[in-house]
Amino acid sequence: MKLSNPPTPSTRSAVGSRAPRANVDASPQRRATARSLAVGVVFVVLALVASACGGSSDSALEPVAFTESDEAEQLLRDGKPQSAETTVPVPETSTTTTTTLPLGEHETWVAVATPAIERVELFDAPNGNPVAFEFGVFNPTYWDTPVALRIIEGVGTDEWVKVSLAVRPNNSEAWIRTEGFETFSHNVHAEVILSSRTVRVFDGDELIAETQAVIGTDATPTPVGDFYVNDVLPRSNAGGAFGPWILSLSAFSETLDTFGGGLPVIAIHGTNNPGLVGGAHSNGCIRIPNDVVTFLAENVPLGSPVRIST
């Protein structure tokens, strides 16, 4: 495996300044300022009930479960733990204009919902018609972290942007107003190559991490597509099947309708069985060595694109 300290962050504007990122040996306290973190759980077996905005009503949301198989009984007993106070890696100020700035070659803009947003309003075009998916996009997330959306058309200074969504079906998109969101940009991106069981992470053109991984079985394959990191969750049980960190992706299993009582979310996470690394043994998640997932949790911002290919 390869790990390297990323370069010093650069800035481009008050809105576009890149969120600071800790080095690999950063303490947990320092890491908390690098991105939105929550003391989360992995299998969520409780239903989510969220109030709708604008006077409409919605039924209870499905619970969420990562596509692995440990600790279900414990979570059924213990339920959802309290979340720790967290910070979001965004600039102090954000503006909304209609001026589109040119993107760098590997630059990604991210929109993070502020507490003013309870439910993200989604549209089919700027000033267009509302669109709906199987479940709404509510803020904060189940883990009490702000909703993070990867901008795929426009930049964070625009009044309207097109975003990728962490909803089913995979690779769903919609337009949002940036009012009520904080926006920032960075250059981190990752690729997962299923045929070689390889995960590679880049900061711009620089390779900062590379490792072998466990991928899904033939019956429960890891889905292919362009996704993004929508949450970074620490694990209280670092020696468990998920290791010390989970990087939740905007991807869902395409062969499982539900898992562990919830939606079958795909994630990159650690493992307590490193001997399986390099094989196809998971329910769709991507397992990597614990030291590598810790490095990624410290250095991969929210919204980072993750391309999974064959």
Keywords:
ten-stranded mixed beta sheet, 17 strands, 310 residues, mainly beta, globular
Question: How does the SSE layout of this entry go?
Answer:
Elements: E1 2-3, H1 28-31, E2 64-66, H2 72-78, E3 108-113, E4 148-153, E5 160-164, E6 173-177, E7 181-186, E8 188-193, E9 198-203, E10 206-212, E11 215-216, E12 225-234, E13 245-252, E14 263-269, E15 280-282, E16 286-287, H3 290-299, E17 305-309
Parallel strand pairs: 2-14, 8-17, 11-15, 14-16
Antiparallel strand pairs: 1-10, 3-4, 3-7, 4-5, 5-6, 8-9, 9-10, 12-13, 12-17, 13-14
Characterization of the model:
By secondary structure, the chain is mostly beta strands. Residues about 5-60 and about 70-100 have low confidence and may be disordered. β4 and β5 (about 160-165) form a beta hairpin. The protein is built from three helices and 17 strands.
Tell me briefly what this model is.
This protein has helices at residues 28-31, 72-78, 290-299; strands at 2-3, 64-66, 108-113, 148-153, 160-164, 173-177, 181-186, 188-193, 198-203, 206-212, 215-216, 225-234, 245-252, 263-269, 280-282, 286-287, 305-309.
